[in-house]
Amino acid sequence: MGNGKNGNGNGKSRKEALEQLHFQVGGLQRQARASNIPLVIVFEGWDIWGRAEHINNLIHSLDPRGFDLHYMAEPTKDDKARPFLWRYYCRMPPAGRVSIFDRSWYFWTVYENFKHANKELLDRRLWAIRTMEEQHAQDGTVFLKFFLNLEKKDLRKVFEKEAEDFCKKRVDHVNGDELLEHFDQAQNIWQKVTQGSDFGFAPWYVIKAEDEVEVNLKILEAISTNLRPVVENPTVRRIGGASLLPESLGNGMVRLEQVDLGQICPVDIYKDQLDRLQERIRKLQCKLYNSDRALVLVMEGWDASGKGGIILRLTNPLNPRAYQVAPVGPPNEVERKHHWLWRFYRDMPKKGRTILFDRSWYGRVLVERVEGFASEPEWKRAYHEINDMEKHLDDEGSIVMKFWLHIDKDTQMKRFQERQENPRKQWKITDEDWRNRDKWDQYVQAVNDMLVRTDTKAAPWFVVPSNDKCYARVKVLGSIADRLEKELGKV
User: Fold this and answer.
1) What's the pTM?
2) Is 459 found in the same domain as 339?
3) Quick one: pLDDT at residue 208?
4) Residue 97 domain-assigned (yes or no)
5) Range of 443's domain?
6) Which segments in the chain show pLDDT lower than 70?
7) Which residue from 301, 270, 308, 271 is spatially nearest to 425, judged by alpha carbons?
8) How far apart, in whole angstroms, are the C-alpha atoms of residue 231 and residue 61?
9) Residue 164 is assigned to a structural domain of this protein
């Protein structure tokens, strides 16, 4: 855990030292912005008013056009309906900006444990926090976490003093007052949490908050000390290596070459099965809506493998108020400034809802790998990042299912030619489809790696033979209906 220096060892007065540090931090912020380096600063502590004053001192150093302050109040009903990390992940800074968190995922982890004392849940929270911070640190984000500490006797004096403040004494209740009333118990939880989350890539600085000026000096000095080497040599900020592919997860996932593409479903049988499956899914959507679960569906596959037809038949019986189809293309300018998973986290559904990703985060290890849009360390690291995200979704109650629609090269050529010749379907075929086809063998290797390394119990892959569209449609809808009935009970 980091320790601040006293800030005045050079013989200057503390006021002069503070002014110098303000100047340094302001300059470093400008350099970080020019180098597209994001910075996350977390403030936690016992005294909510004192914390605000120290945050105010920090932002006097900063260009107000380059930072965002997030006071993480009690989660709303909407927040509670989404995965734990959602509201924090969505507030992570884009390249070159600073996000300051006044209270954070840490306070709400401590508060939750204080109220319920669930060790398993606490362990899950600390795991999720680590994955979020590590993913962003590997992507270049600089993290600094401050806990402004006070002893119980000193805290009592502070409260007595603040009770006379005209503004402060008019605030009746701030979430977390219970922690102060049970200081020893809360302190024990905070110690577990800070010790369990003091990472080299995201260190804690526990600062005694007795002397206001000294605290400000230590905060600014810690920021300067950590940010300076990064802006002077931006290459050091990317700590992620992933030079080797992770080992196979060993879930028995078949390779594409082993898929039986000869499976068919006659049209008359298909129509009857489709009607039955759509009715099951309609009823299961209602059951899902009234549960505390969400459904996350991923549809991947070769160009012209039939994704659109399956999505159309899956959504046809559904109530549109409770599902969303998210078509995924290349990231836009805003999305490229964030961690690459940021744009997908934003769309994660609330409890009771369904989202269907038409292509997904797997583009990182498919098209971005094959076409060179992601570096080798980036796409190799992505397997871990994907597995972590999907595990977090599973931990939070989401049902995650992923489909790869597999066809052979001859079937793809036949469908490409049909699209070119049919005026109503020509919009479906692009130059990019032909370019991807030229790299078929490279994509086969990428898909096989993806299936082996991301087929998990939390988020299994379903490889669907799709040379016959009727078979593929009933296979996907049947798999979804079976999984929902397994998780929610039969309808």
Assistant:
1) 0.90
2) yes
3) 92
4) yes
5) 256-488
6) 1-12, 49, 156-176, 236-253
7) 308
8) 17
9) yes
